Amino acid sequence: MKRPVKITETVFRDAHQSLWATRMKTDDMMAVAEMIDEVGYHSLEAWGGATFDSCLRFLKEDPWVRLRRLKAVIRKTPLQMLLRGQNILGYRHYPDDVVRTFCHRAVDNGISIIRIFDALNDIRNMEVAIRASKEAGAHVQGTVVYTISPVHNIDSYIKLAKELIELGCDSICIKDMAGLLKPYDAVELVTRLKSEVNTMLQLHTHYTSGLASMTYLKAIEAGVDVVDTAISALAMGTSQPPTETLVAALQDTPYDTGINLAKLAPINQHFKNLKKNYSDIQTPIEVDTAVLSYQIPGGMISNLRNQLAGQNAAHRYEEVLAEVPRTREELGYPPLVTPTSQMVGTQAVLNVLTGKRYSVVPKEIKDYVRGMYGRPPAPINPEVQKLIIGDEKPITHRPADDLEPMIDKARKEIMEYYQQEEDVLTYIFFPDVAIEFFKHRGK
Question: How many CB atoms lie under 10 A from the CB of residue 227?
């Protein structure tokens, strides 16, 4: 019985976020956008994640203009984005009026599929984004963030997936940001999800540990419908498995993707030629099996190295690697995905460099312990909690309930730079960077 597997291509978002520090320029995308549209992909991930910040901060490009330019030529393939729930595209929670406005604007500008996740798998932080995206007419993909800990298991993932479908999600994605999902664990997880939730199921993973292609093959056999891959010039390492390899592996099988390898070759050659332009920021293509021990995503590993190098403490890297799981356990086993990966990583570095654990605590960690990012997967160690916030009682309600609306106030604040309604959202997410960009645009 034929069961063709569909592919989401990540080269315009996660692939270059993982390997080129999210620095790919829009013109470099546009050069092959029409060719990519002819391949027959299920979708093209082209927006969200860190792309918004990097467009403004490093490339001096308007991310909204990028989206509109891509949509103008990519007419057959749905454009997909990654949304951090109540964090949207930033690193903290935003009020509901911002979430709702953003979801509608994203769809109006060309997004068809919105993948929504929360770093803590706290469904309360996804509800508003799910409803707003549905209202806007998007295909809404609810996300189960996969990690390994004493409190994360298949039953907990099944429960979350059912809740996401009840909220109105059209499909479910298993998001394995660290490449931790093993092939036979994938079989069990996919089999149970298809049996008990019975919806379109997509799998996203990274090649960091070297497991990814094997995991995809077993997941496909178990019933997964869509997988995320990257064209081979930007595949492997901390990126996704290569598109061409998977297409070839599934040819002439019941899972044949129907994609013609000949259509992929010129697209891949374009990105091969581009590599020299991004050589100063490229992450090495390598397998790092340390992720299996420390459960640290590839992007987080490079951040840790950079933080230590900046403190002239590169020689203490192994100490920090060992400190991360300990810190994560004490903080209630948060999955290590944006923004909690950066938060836990920074705290681990401080714990090692200061010599006295939790003597220096960033504001983000204090807010996390206060409950302002959501419900931790497990209780925070009481002694560590006391060190961080003293006798203060963490909140137990949805964090965004405490936030005042921002849209109208922000619009007034940027009137001298205002050119489009999307500018208001850009300013809310990254105020200082946005003002600098608006001034640059004005010239």
Answer: 28
